[in-house]
Amino acid sequence: MSSPPAIAPDDQVIRDLLSGKYDIEIYGTYLIMHNVPYLDAQGIVCRGALVSTPTLAGDIIKEPQDHTILFAGEFPCSISRTPMSELRQHPSTIQIYPGLTAAWHFSNKPLDATTPFLNSNPNYRAFTSEFEKLTHYAGLVSAPATYLEPNVTANIGTGDLRTTAQPSTAFHFLDTATPRAGLGHLSAKLKNLRKVALVGVGGTNSYVLDHLAKTEIPEIHLYDAKPFGQHSAFRAPGAFSKDDVRNRLPKATHYANLYSAMRNGIIGHPDYVTAANLGELDDMDFVFIAVDRETARREITTHLLAKGIPFIDCGMGLQLAEDSGAVYGLVRTTICTPDKNDHLDKCARFKPDGEDDDLYGSNIQISEMNALNAAIAVYRFKQYLGIYHDIRRAPNQVFTISEGQLLTSGNE
To answer: Which of 33, 279, 305, 410 has the most crowded CB, counting CB atoms within 10 A?
Structure first.
């Protein structure tokens, strides 16, 4: 199922490009000019595509914040059949969609005609519009081809926008950061998942949710029946109103409502995960666990291990130092997969309910430790998916507050 274009088809920039008879396509957050002529190394006139990632406000194109552009085709050459030096470049392998891959990343700025040359060095300026940016590069790339064959131009469009099935997305407005950084191939690893679950949506998993909600994971399921209370507002991402804490909605419902402003697929289950509903996790691709009841953690992890479902278990052990009154302790992140899980009991250190007397169980306000725990968990999750490079493959990581060290273990 495709989504509406991220760029409004009646945007002024689109209208101007179509009026100029340029062959224009919108695909996701990419603005593509097809059929741009250029010379290859053999002096043959070829056609390529300029690919821009315009600055957007919703679905409206704003002034460019970047002067670079992508190009799909061979590297353009001058009439002497040498690479065009003015296209300061580096190679690229960004797949825009199947059949269109940007092979080059160009960098060129327009001259500032109002400022004279100083010591023979030209002065440059920023592009004033996306229209100027695309037509500047089109003119630059096609100049040698047009010199040799004057009838060859980029203005061969029909005046109509190409009809293109848009990529599906969970968002109400598209992510422009990922394509701008050229990370679409990595984002696809998240988009190709089906369902991820967060068991417990307290301090740590609320930050996990904040990170995951900004990815293309189609469905994120939240399990937590505990009310969103006044203390919750002080250890969760974002700012909350007095009504938020008065309403005391179940955390799963509260956060599903909150993130629905940005995207679809955040599904709240105002329930605790117990033996009665453990089976709902069987359909998940990955599970994040952040609960303070030890028997529940053991029940859930045992079930996931039996089903071969990978998961991350988060935890903290914090105490007050008797001499200074300062908080010390650790933040733990443990990942278990079907291939590696024999470290869980040793690293997670399950305890019977009622035996845990650390500060975390008293709901102390420790938002920075929750956020750190969540950041490590999400980064390990992305390492597991191959998004971040992973040499050590450490199944357990512990951050010690006093020493400021991130220790790894579990490979023994």
So the answer is: 33
pLDDT of 1-27, one tens digit each?
Answer: 456 677 888 899 999 999 999 999 999
Domain residue ranges in the chain: 12-173, 184-409
Q: What DSSP letter does each residue of 46-100 carry, written as one string?
A: EEEEEEE---EETTEE---S--EEEEESSPPB-TTSSB-TTSEEEEEEEEEETTE
Domain covering 184-409: architecture = 3-Layer(aba) Sandwich (3.40)
- Write b or e for each residue in 315-343: b if 16 or more Cβ atoms lie within 10 A of its Cβ, otherwise e: bbbbeeeeeeeeeebbbbbbbbbeeebeb
Helix (H) or strand (E) holding 309: none
pLDDT in tens, 77-91: 999 999 999 998 788
Residue 205 to residue 210: CA distance in whole angstroms: 8
Q: How far apart are CA 375 and CA 367, in angstroms?
A: 12
